[in-house]
Structure formats: structure tokens, C-alpha cells
Amino acid sequence: MKFVIVGYGRVGSRTARVLREEGHDVTVVDNNDKKVDRARDEGFEAVLGDGGTESVLREAGVEGADAVGGLTGDPNINFAACMLGKEYDCRTVMRISEDYRQEIYERYADDVDEIIYPERLGAAGAKTALLGGDFNAIGDLTDQLRLTTVTVPDGAPIVGDHVANIDLGADGRVYAHGREREPMTIPLPGTVVEPGDQLALLTERNALERVRSKLLG
């Protein structure tokens, strides 16, 4: 898949690296020449300019992209990049600050495919959102362990179960839960799984398919 990442700061750079490690084609856009140089030094195609400008995104290859991530620290640039991405039929993921008022959050949420913010697993949430999948191994923690996120679909066997009662045995464990468009947190004992919820897991590398089967059927 082809991705355009606007912003090569902490979240954008990590997201770009993880996507590339999984074999995806990533182009970076940033208006800071030092960050663009760093991206190029790290092997990325990179474009210097305002990611909220159509000519810059076209130079970055938005016409053939599957998704655009507006991951700068400036929500205005992020929103503009996403709206332009929509014009080219891209999936759009926008980063905002955690302290945005609910009505502003909802306005953005109506216009883009998904909103992420640093407290929502940062680059992990961005990468998962860009791919749009329901089960994504987002990074290696050790030679044996992976950090994985799951979006629970309708009909999954765990719908209706208490998060605290999900037993993966030696294959891993659930360590965070979040409702749709909400940050992931440590689940309370009474939290029940609903369709659309997200779970963050620690899993054994060789157990991903078993875990997927247990959680999603």
C-alpha cells in the first residue's frame, strides 16, 4: 500500500518507519527542512512544503495513495491535508491535541475517517488507523513479543464478555481497551466488550493466529 505521511515529528516518523518495515510505500511531507533531510537520510522519499497544500501533496504522490495521515502538531495543517486526501479518494487519519473541546472533536470526526492523538498509543494508533484493518501487529517489543491492536467486529466471540475475563493463556494478554474514537485505557473490571471496541494486546510472535481466532473467530 502507498501512504503519504504529513509531519515527520515523533508520531509521524515512528508511523512511517513501522509502515515501511511492513513493506508499505511511504512518502513524507514536512515544512521543516531539517526534518525532511532527516527523513531522506533515513531512506524515505520526502517532500519539503506545507502538507495542507494540494501542489505539495500531488508532488508527494497523493493521486496514487491509499491513505493520507495528517500527523503534525498543527491541526489546521492536518485537517487541510485530510480534506485534500479525501478529494483523491484516500483514507484519512488526523492527529489532534488531547485537550480539544468535544464539539471541535466531533466536527473533525465527521469529516475524516479516524482521529488519533498522542495518548491513543501515538504511532501505534496512527498506523492501525491508516491501514484500516481489524487486527494489526504494530511492532516488535522483543524477539518473542509483539504489540498488537484489534478492532472488534460484529459477531466476534468476545462481544459481551468482560475485558478482564478474556483469557489468552500463555499466548498473551489484553492490556488496554477503548471505545470507538476514545483513548485506550486500562479496562475497569466491569468493562464489557462491544462491537467497534479496540483492544491492545501483548502477544507471542508465533501465536498471532491463535489469538486472532480466540478474539475474532
3D structure, described in words:
- With 217 residues, the chain is an alpha/beta fold.
- The protein has 2 domains: 118 residues, Rossmann fold; 84 residues, Regulator of K+ conductance, C-terminal domain (Alpha-Beta Plaits, 2-Layer Sandwich).
- 31% of the residues lie in helices and 25% in strands.
- The chain contains 7 helices and 10 strands.
- It has a 6-stranded parallel sheet, sandwiched between helices. It has a 4-stranded antiparallel sheet with strand order 7-8-10-9, with helices on both faces.
- β1, α1 and β2 form a beta-alpha-beta unit.
- α1 packs across α6.
- It holds the Pfam family TrkA_N.
- It comes from Haloferax prahovense (strain DSM 18310 / JCM 13924 / TL6).
- Part of a potassium transport system.
- GO terms for molecular function: potassium ion transmembrane transporter activity.
- This is TRK potassium uptake system protein.
Descriptive key words:
217 residues; alpha/beta; Rossmann fold; Alpha-Beta Plaits; six-stranded parallel sheet; four-stranded antiparallel sheet
Say what the CATH topology of the largest domain is: Rossmann fold
Terminal residue distance:
26 Å
Q: Provide the domain count.
A: 2
Low-confidence stretches: none
CATH class division of the largest domain: Alpha Beta
What is the averaged pLDDT score?
Answer: 82
Proportion of residues in extended strands: 15-25%
Order of helices and strands: EHEHEHEHEHEHEEEEH
Q: What is the CATH superfamily classification of the largest domain?
A: NAD(P)-binding Rossmann-like Domain
CATH architecture of the largest domain: 3-Layer(aba) Sandwich
- Helix content bin: 25-40%
Structural class category:
alpha/beta
Radius of gyration: 18 Å
Number of helical regions:
7
Organism: Haloferax prahovense (strain DSM 18310 / JCM 13924 / TL6)
GO molecular function, one term: potassium ion transmembrane transporter activity
Domain RCK C-terminal: 135-217
Protein name: TRK potassium uptake system protein
